[in-house]
Design a protein that fits this description.
The chain is of the alpha/beta class. The protein has helices at residues 52-62, 82-85, 87-98, 115-124, 138-144, 151-163, 183-196, 214-225, 229-237, 248-261, 268-276, 281-288; strands spanning 2-5, 16-17, 20-21, 46-49, 68-71, 101-106, 127-132, 168-171, 200-202, 207-209, 242-244.
Length: 290
């Protein structure tokens, strides 16, 4: 299901872009379900921002200088509906035509459909593709992220981007306490990252955040798929927003040592400037040959 809504702007003051509100990927931990975001319609009844590409074009035309446009932080730009409506594709075409850069975060292999636009964009300015990876075990992945590309499928996307010369970054979040917060899971994901040649990994720690709206849905899914785990959350965290894994120190040590060994950016102070730095292609070529 979907419905259209009128908006005056598509681009935020921080150059963030979300063309949809809601999602059909079904991830059991999704923070965007939280009541604080005021998504008043059914979460799976996607709200589509009407005339998004036209509004974005007008906004970019008024920008004094080009920059990176970031999408995917709130709702995935490649949910199921994108196959039909192609709103994300249209907006990327506007970004490319206007000479801006783009940083796209998704969990879906549908992004491969737009490889032509991403390559054209990166040839002119700069494009970075970000992919969320949480679970090395494919069976667990299908439970906690049921309606989206599996981890192995996402890794193939990252490899395709590397083949196309487009830099990639992985979001290692969330890692769910008592479910996938193991050294084995972490090492599997990190090996995937080196296999795909990612430039950076975003990790704010090992755990999950829960708040009103998100917590209730998450607990209902735990009751359905992970017997007894909800009770462990309630006993361990109560109503805390940050639910940090008891294994956090061990996992963080593995993570930092691995990233240093393989020259992968992992400090937020390094990864985020990499994601947001805009450079015309001429400047990039100069740096490549230095």
């Amino acid at each position: 299901m979907h419905h259209f809504a009128d908006y005056k702007t598509i681009l935020s003051p921080q150059n963030g872009m979300n063309v949809y509100r809601g999602c059909t990927h079904g991830c059991i931990y999704c923070d965007s379900r939280s009541h604080c975001y005021q998504i008043l319609h059914d979460f799976e009844d996607i709200e589509v921002k009407r005339d998004a590409a036209r509004i974005l074009d007008a906004q970019l035309a008024r920008r004094r200088k080009p920059c990176m446009v970031v999408t995917g932080s709130m709702c995935d730009p490649y949910l199921h509906l994108e196959e039909e409506l192609q709103v994300t594709r249209q907006c990327l075409q506007v970004i490319e035509r206007r000479g801006f850069g783009a940083s796209v975060l998704t969990k879906s292999a549908r992004i491969l459909r737009d490889m032509d636009v991403l390559q054209a964009l990166h040839a002119k300015t700069r494009c970075v593709v970000q992919m969320t990876l949480t679970t090395y075990d494919e069976d667990i992945c299908r439970v906690i992220e049921p309606n989206v590309s599996t981890t192995a499928e996402r890794v193939r996307v990252l490899e395709s981007m590397r083949g196309a010369g487009i830099p990639t970054v992985v979001w290692l979040s969330p890692i769910l306490p008592f479910i996938n917060d193991t050294a084995e899971n972490l090492r599997g994901i990190l090996e995937y990252c080196t296999q795909a040649g990612v430039r950076g990994i975003v990790c704010f720690g090992f755990g999950v955040t829960l708040r009103e709206g998100d917590r209730e849905y998450f607990y209902a899914q735990l009751d359905k798929h992970f017997s007894g785990v909800k009770q462990r959350y309630i006993k361990t965290y109560g109503n805390a927003y940050e639910c940090t894994s008891p294994n956090h120190p061990q996992l963080m040590q593995i993570f930092t040592q691995f990233c240093r060994k393989h020259d992968i950016l992992y400090q937020p102070s390094e990864v985020f400037p990499f994601l947001h730095k805009f450079e015309p292609r001429e400047r990039q070529l100069t740096l490549d040959f230095q």
